Amino acid sequence: MRFLFFIMGLMFFSCAMVGIFLPVVPTTPFLILSTYCFGKSSTRFHHWLTSSVVYHKYAKDFVENKTLPRKRKVFLLTLASSMLLFPFIMLEFIWKIVIVLVYIYLYYYFIFKIKTSE
Q: Is the pLDDT of residue 28 over 90?
């Protein structure tokens, strides 16, 4: 099981690195996932990741304080909203209701649960 978490940690970390250079790939969620996976698999890799500059720049505030800068919150909400728009247009009515509920929860969580830092 530790090996599976290690592989997933590497995969999520790779996605986070791609997200640094491609603006359509969110960096913060992938870094948080890789931190969790490395924490379950390897103390050494977890320590390496949490002491890296990338982690401090993109994920530390959220992991420790549940805060995100306003610019990053807006970017993540815009990205998530645009990603959900395609299935909303293409799917049947019942799935549109599900997607609307996901939208509502997404905006509720980002506005009321994640504090905004400057």
A: no
- Tell the residue number behind the tokens 């090996």, with chain if given: 3
Question: 36-54 pLDDT, tens per residue?
Answer: 999 999 999 899 999 999 8
Q: From the centroid of its chain, how far is CA 99?
A: 19
How confident is the model over 97-109, as pLDDT tens digits? 999 999 999 999 9
* Residue carrying structure tokens 């509502």: 104
- Name the token pair of 49: 């990741």
Q: How many CB atoms lie within 10 A of CB 14?
A: 12
| Distance separating alpha carbons of residues 10 and 12, to the nearest angstrom | 6
* H-state helical runs in 23-110: 27-41, 43-50, 53-58, 60-65, 70-90, 93-108
Give 96's Cβ-side CA count (13 Å radius).
6
